[in-house]
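New here. Your pick:
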Amino acid sequence: MSRDSLKKTRRLVVKVGSQLTCGQGLEVGRLKAIAKQLAQLRREGRECLLVTSGAVALGYKRLGLAERPTTLRLKQASAAAGQVALMVGWEKALEAYGLKAAQILLTAEDLADRARFLNAKNTFATLIELGAIPVVNENDTVAVAELKVGDNDTLGSLVASLCEADLFINLTDQDGLFEADPKERPEAAQIFEIAKVTPEILALAGGSGPLGTGGMFTKVQAAGRLAERGLPSIIANGLTRDILLRLLAGERLGTYFPPLAKRRPAYKHWLAFAARPKGKLLVDAGAALALQEKGKSLLPGGILAVEGLFSAGDAVAISLVGQEPFGVGLVNYSAPEVGQILGLSSQQIESRLGYSHSDEIIHRDNLVVFGDPPKENLS
């Protein structure tokens, strides 16, 4: 999929980073510049959604704190104070060009729970149908550390998938990804297109900036995840004049990530990146091979141990002993039940438990293996 095909984009999600929204307080001029472009895109018949950062960065200054807070309670207080100013800023900027803003605050739990995820999807669809611009941020005022999405690059990619967008544009204060840190090596060349996000590509990305919680690493990581989903994305400089209009005209700006040829269906993308595992299953090498290479379901015979407390239908991680998880899936049995039948054949489940919900602990249709090219057809 070439850049030229972006001219056909019907629905796009634009994420605006903290460095753009509140570099020196609320950057009203920058918000209006983006709003003006969104208005033009709307006149062209395109549907637009915004994901915005900046609530904490704005809020701590409004509360009189000397520096960005590090404790959870002060971050939440700052988010509460800053979100008001941030949303009013976007509302005024959009209103100046005849657009209606609609605030949506999400937590990781909203995205991890399948029913709430689908409800959010319906809300987005209704707002778009009514002609509003959804303005999305993480609900930092209530999200505790273990329930946070963590950064708005990830949030933006999840919103793009949830809304079935045609394109995700991640605006920052940098031109894109470079072969080296341009601040340290001014001669470093920009990378204009990345066919696939590999560990080597991720290694080129640095840490987070002074105002944000992400950084180039999370931006590239989010782009890689969307490519697996089959969605193109661009990391570009939001300070560049008419950046959105120029990108959708096919101009060679920013770093472009085309979609992979083999796509991960929407449901499995949710399972891989939005569902929150409530436990872990440790498997033997034979089971890992069957899952990773042969696309099989997880049977009780390949399970060595159970970690955590989960119920049937919950998401759980899958790993070899002493290694990072290589997959995630929805279990057909609770943790106590799996503990009783691990190592057995599927035919022995009923004799051990007195009943059998399924021959599989995790069916392949409810299983995602990381880093493995998806084999499913889009349907």
About this structure: Residues 207-214, 372-379 have pLDDT under 50 and may be disordered. The domain at 277-369 is CATH 2.30.130.10 (Archaeosine Trna-guanine Transglycosylase; Chain: A, domain 4). DSSP finds 14 helices and 14 strands in the chain. The longest strand covers residues 100-106.
